[in-house]
């Protein structure tokens, strides 16, 4: 159950309300992103289909904070929320969604760069699909290859451990447990998948509110997996839209990789316990919790052995 409606103290909300209600709002949660942030902001402001841009600043360096304020004073579509501290990604997105006025919401990471036609393709991807509908973009690396995590299978304790340890890639008889699908053929049209990436996705405001937004008990990571699961459980759909592309740098935050992976491990443990629908699955989730957290924290080292997770190893 989301705690979406808990009050958050925001000491500064700089806003220039448009003369007409906006149709499309982009929501971006920022935390010590660095130079990539302003390149991403420029891409968003250069997209004519975007009527409103809400930036929730969970914490920036003083120079970046001042620069964000300058943009808010000069750009009528830009709305800045500051002063609330680092409340986490999920809670920050919910705050941004409450601040935004658009009927169409696009959640975008601050180190992700919108590509041409992405916004239009995301909105088109929801057409004809059951509600609540989540539409994810095709997430690219800087070299144009598809990034790991943009389209995924069912995330379970077993598939997670095999994927994190790279055993599902190394041993042929375990390939069926691999959840990442970036090496499969690119579909020619939107397709249904269990899980998409939270780096860039679309939902209507109505659907986002129907789900109660993100579950704020996730601080960083896994909240997108949880959102997709809840949408499907309500009879909705999760859509991978190959025509909507976004370049995602990743790992731009000043947080240490082990800290990031720790939060991811904790999020996965919460998710597996939450979705366990019988005592046996709950017991399995509890039993595997230390292993999941341990493998998560060790992932930076595993990347050194196996190389970066840019796609499946051929």
- How many strands in all? 12
Any idea what the CATH superfamily of the largest domain is called? Answer: Spore Coat Polysaccharide Biosynthesis Protein SpsA, Chain A
The ordered H/E elements are: EEHEHEHEEHEEHHEEEHHEHH
Radius of gyration: 19 Å
Gross geometry:
globular
CATH structural fold name of the largest domain: Spore Coat Polysaccharide Biosynthesis Protein SpsA, Chain A
Strand content: 15-25%
Mean pLDDT, rounded to whole units?
88
Q: How does the major sheet shape up? A: 10 strands, mixed
Low-confidence stretches: 1-5, 308-314
Number of H- or I-type helical stretches: 10
* Helix coverage percent: 25-40%
Structural class: alpha/beta
What is the name of the CATH architecture of the largest domain? Alpha-Beta Complex
Q: Determine and state the CATH class of the largest domain.
A: Alpha Beta
- Domain count: the total is 2
* N-end to C-end Cα span: 40 Å
Provide an overview of this structure.
This protein has 314 residues and is α/β, with parallel strands linked by helices. It has 2 domains: 218 residues, Spore Coat Polysaccharide Biosynthesis Protein SpsA, Chain A (Alpha-Beta Complex), CATH 3.90.550; 80 residues, no CATH class. Helix content is 38%, strand content 20%. Strands 1, 2, 3, 4, 5, 6, 7, 9, 11 and 12 form a 10-stranded mixed beta sheet that branches. Strand 3, helix 2 and strand 4 form a beta-alpha-beta unit. Helix 5 packs parallel to helix 10 and helix 9 packs antiparallel against helix 10. The longest helix is centred in the C-terminal third of the chain and has 28 residues. The chain is globular, with a radius of gyration of 19 Å. It starts with 11 loop residues before the first strand and ends in an 8-residue tail after the last helix. The N terminus and C terminus are likely disordered.
